[in-house]
Specification:
rod-shaped, 5 helices, alpha+beta
Length: 170
Amino acid sequence: MANSSLQALKQEWQTKWSAMAPRERQIAVVAVWLAGLTLLIMVGIRPAWRTLSDTPAQLRELDSQLDQMRRLADEAQLLKLRPPVPPAQSEAALKSATDRLGSGAKLLIQGDRATLTLNKVSGDALASWLDEARGAARAKPTEAGLMQVEQGVYSGNIVLALGPGSGGGR
């Protein structure tokens, strides 16, 4: 059935084609070629061209990410090589750093854990505190529950692991 309708359609097309003037046939052939060329450009060439034009920017972005990952890996290796800090020195460094945060920060040390409770502390001050906690106290953040209460201001808790294993990067 599909074959017979296809044959009928083909026959109808041939009849119309034969009835066309040579100039109309020429216009129809040019229109079909233009439609085919447009389809080829839209489906075949344009996506490839877009990919080629986007590739340099994507490669620069990937190189940047790779450089950052390498820097972080180097930093992690350096942190692993640092000797552990005695517990008393670690606690003193954390208390000193916490005092610089002001009245919006409270530090509670229990055994090999320290919990910092923050109330409206600036992000820059918090970043400095984390750097000092990681570097001077060799404390490793294990949990964080922070909420931005204003633009660049945070409240919440940070739990740190203290002791020899926290600075060595397990």
